[in-house]
Write a structure and sequence with these properties.
Number of strands: 0
Radius of gyration: 27 Å
Strand content: under 5%
Shape: globular
Distance between the termini: 96 Å
Number of helices: 17
Oligomer: single chain
Helix content: over 70%
Structural class: mainly alpha
Largest sheet: none
Amino acid sequence: MSCWKQEKTNTWAFPTLILCLYGFFYMMKPSEPFLTPYLTGPDKNLTTDEVTNQILPVWTYSYLALLFPVFLLTDYVRYKPVLLLQGTSLIVTWLLLLFAHGVLAMQVVEFFYGMVTATEVAYYAYIYSVVSTQHYQRVTSYCRSVTLVAATVAAVLGQLLVSLAHVSYFYLNAMTLASVSLAFLCAFFLPMPQRSMFFHRKAAPGPVPGPDKGPSSCPQERSPGAAARGPSPQPQAGAARPQGHTLSVLLQLARDLRDCYGSRKLLYWSLWWALATAGFNQVVNYVQVLWDWRAPSHSSAVYNGAVEAIATFLSSVTSFLVQYMKINWDHFGELALGFFSAIDAGCLFLMHFSTNIWACYAGYLIFKACYVLLLTIATFQIAVNLSMERYALIFGFNNFIALLIQTILTILVVDSRGLGLDIVTQFLIYGSYFAVIHGIFMIRSICVLISYKCQRIVRSCTEQLNQAEHESREQIVTSYRTRL
């Protein structure tokens, strides 16, 4: 009977269903579009400067500090324990948001939310360890679609409750706490993977001390604690094996990175990914502060939820349209990166110079749609020639570089220990940042197109010379035959 239950949980449908439920409740956060109005309102009574310069930067710092160790831990303990850690961090985050007060407490909130975002890698990597390769495309579609649906539903629900039912932000956060608690419960029902991408590439043989089981025995399912401890201790010389295995994995990761970035095409797409993602994260992290500055929530209607819902919908549409773009990305990819980065820069300049809240909303919608469009193209271009292990490694490393750049931006522009600029000036900096990205890739695209044109000219000249040489030979042969 126990063997039948385990076989049932090992099919692709069961873990996909549970993971989709987890993703839905994890993203079902109706309070998220209203975080800044909640913190600056009567519930927490914080100032805009405190939120901008002292509280929000903590998320960036904690995310950077936790990303790499969590990435390795996720693979080593095989995903499920990290999903449970993410669920716990979500619950702690919203408990503190509901009942704690003061700048220090909210900084602790941002630290735990940094833990939440650092552990997102477990959600997107888990499914590849429990389903076969032929189901990758289907389950990836399901998991990503359900998170988009949940984010859209949450934003619409939050907006309706605020605008029509006049529900306070406190109760929106209470609803979010209930949702993330359900996500935490869903994680318990996920089957424990027996392999991972780097540390456990093959199914674990279940090295439990004791008599060997016969071939007909049901495989033992290892607990998260056993996974975290790694292989059971072996007598004498086996004690140094885990450390040596970890070192070999790290060396293999370094070799894979060197090989992947040896491709110039992948290098430039990854460069755009890192640069643009750093700027995008900064904008998303602080845009609510700008909206609250343009239209203070205590005296104006707040439409943050509606804007986020529309932005998510437009992002999903642009991602869907990528499959219909018949473009030679080898020749025109950098041109697209430069062109749409210019649009992003224009949107951010609009948000800086315009005092109209609706112009700020429109600029954000276009900015996010363009970024997601290019990110989808970059994802495809990078992943098309990579194995699953390198796929995860490159994406993780690109995000790490993006976070490193974002941290530098935060220290210089936002943090009170740096320049501590006001929110309006920050968006001038972000617009200039994307203008620099535009310049980099426009110059690169011009070089690529000139090189391509020169190659065509050389090829055409070579073909003409070959044709002329061939015709000359034919004339010589013809004249020789005529003389004979």
